[in-house]
Structure to design on (98 residues):
């Protein structure tokens, strides 16, 4: 599935297993949660983006940094993450990353 399909219709994929590929454009570390990092995942031309919640252990073992191209298998979610006081329409909770 493309990142665009998910971000254009997040309700269709809410709480369903999805697999998307994208480029890490930003990493947010939450001081209140030492087990998860929040990663902004964008498509090649930056016309679609979502947030992925990735376990810190996986971030380190896969050497994920800004600019990394990754594939995430996980649960599609809607309206569960807030960024700068705004609730995001879509996000992914990671089960597996490569």
């Amino acid at each position: 599935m493309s990142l665009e399909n998910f971000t254009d219709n997040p309700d269709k994929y809410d709480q369903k297993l999805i697999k998307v590929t994208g480029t890490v454009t930003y990493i947010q570390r939450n001081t209140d949660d030492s087990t998860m990092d929040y990663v902004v995942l964008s498509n090649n031309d930056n016309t679609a983006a979502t947030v992925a919640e990735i376990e810190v252990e996986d971030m380190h073992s896969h050497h994920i940094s800004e600019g990394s191209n990754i594939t995430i298998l996980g649960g599609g979610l809607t309206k569960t993450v807030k960024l700068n006081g705004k609730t995001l329409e879509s996000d992914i909770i990671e089960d597996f990353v490569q």
Remarks:
- The chain has a mean pLDDT of 92.
- The CA atoms of residues 66 and 91 lie 18 Å apart.
